[in-house]
UniProtKB/TrEMBL annotation:
Keyword ATP-binding listed: no
Signal peptide location: 1-29
InterPro entries: Oaf, Oaf_C, OAF_N
Keywords: Signal
Positions of the Out at first protein BRICHOS-like domain: 29-178
Listed name of the protein: Out at first protein
Gene field: LOC113218342
Originating organism: Frankliniella occidentalis
Length: 269
């Protein structure tokens, strides 16, 4: 059952300009937002909050066609960033390839799923820009994630990364942080991952080699151009604080990870 909370209609998620909509369906709330990126292009972000699962998902399509999905699992302190990159058929690639990058997050980096579900916006046609740029965070991935066993990290990995069974990555550093959470076990977490091939623990960057069939270290950057990163509080007449809005941020993530052949990393040239 769908309950429409606004008088205007949401358009397709791939249109360049859309209205900001607030929908409620099957326990999910959804925001559709116009965002201007650093290159001046206007993209549409879809942000979905599921309070029951305590999950927030953000998705958008970049101007180069790459579909980026970010899922925040607040219960497990897990971020999953998924990239669906269109292939270059004239260079022998398939139609697309999918990679997932799984990392630990601190809950304070984002507003909660409950707070996200309560967001309302005036002026839905506005093209939005973030208030703060949180820069670029570098991640050197050193483990493969076995998606069939990934439920010990987050139950959402197996569904989101079903097309990235051989290209889902995490880090030893993230396992350590998850193992320190109540009820967690490092041995169980280790059962869901595997190291990169021993002979290729430190392959050269893909940009440094010419052979398309040799292993190398690929780099992929994904930037979230606009997301609610914290709540704003104001003081009332009695000096009592109350929520009075949100602060919005921009953040980039640069991932370095192993690929078995340069052909799987043609953008890193």
């Amino acid at each position: 059952m769908r309950i429409r909370r606004t008088a205007f209609t949401c358009s397709s998620r791939f249109l360049a300009l859309v209205y900001l909509c607030y929908l409620f369906q099957d326990g999910n709330t959804q925001l559709l937002i116009n965002v201007k990126n650093q290159g001046g292009d206007v993209l549409q972000e879809t942000i979905t909050s599921n309070v029951t699962e305590d999950v927030v998902t953000l998705e958008f399509q970049r101007s180069d066609g790459t579909l980026v999905t970010q899922l925040i699992d607040f219960r497990q302190n897990v971020q999953i960033l998924k990239a669906l990159v269109l292939g270059e058929e004239e260079r022998g690639q398939s139609q697309y390839q999918v990679m997932c990058f799984v990392s630990h997050i601190e809950k304070a980096e984002f507003i909660s799923s409950d707070a996200m579900a309560k967001l309302r916006q005036k002026n839905p046609g506005t093209v939005r820009m973030p208030e703060e740029d949180r820069g670029r965070h570098n991640f050197t991935m050193d483990l493969f994630v076995d998606t069939s066993r990934s439920g010990v990290i987050s139950k959402h990995i197996v569904n989101l990364c079903t097309e990235a069974k051989d290209a889902t990555y995490t880090r030893q550093a993230d396992l350590k942080l998850w193992s320190e959470q109540p009820g967690a076990s490092m041995s169980i977490l280790l059962s869901s991952v595997s190291p990169f091939p021993v002979e290729n623990t430190s392959p050269p960057r893909c940009i440094e080699i010419t052979s398309m069939w040799k292993p190398c270290t690929c780099h992929l950057e994904m930037c979230i151009g606009w997301y609610p990163c914290s709540l704003k509080y104001c003081k009332g007449k009695s000096d009592a604080s109350y929520r009075c809005g949100i602060k919005t941020c921009r953040k980039c993530n640069l991932f370095a990870y192993y690929v078995s052949q340069k052909q799987m990393c043609l953008w890193d040239e």
